[in-house]
Write a structure and sequence with these properties.
Number of helices: 5
Largest sheet: none
Structural class: mainly alpha
Order of helices and strands: HHHHH
CATH superfamily: lambda repressor-like DNA-binding domains
CATH class: Mainly Alpha
CATH architecture: Orthogonal Bundle
Distance between the termini: 15 Å
CATH topology: 434 Repressor (Amino-terminal Domain)
Length: 79
């Protein structure tokens, strides 16, 4: 299954809640603030905050940007 298809399936199933914890865990391992991650990913700091709190579902483009900024593959930020 391709990464995109995997993400679509997980997104549709509501398993994006796991994404919130994984995102924060990866960010903290790098000792990076939400603002620093947002700047490196080219997204708003409020977006990172909302994603980590589950107030926003990530788009596929956002996942790719965050993965690149964290130095991981998009599939490593699992839903």
């Amino acid at each position: 299954m391709s990464t995109v298809n995997h993400m679509i399936d997980m997104y549709k199933s509501g398993m994006y809640h796991k994404f919130m914890g994984t995102l924060k865990e990866l960010r903290l391992k790098l000792f990076v603030s939400q603002a620093e991650l947002a700047e490196n990913a080219g997204i708003a700091a409020e977006t990172v905050n909302r994603l980590e709190r589950g107030r926003r579902k990530p788009s596929f483009i956002t996942i790719r940007k965050l993965a690149k900024a964290l130095g991981v593959e998009p599939r490593d930020i699992e839903f």
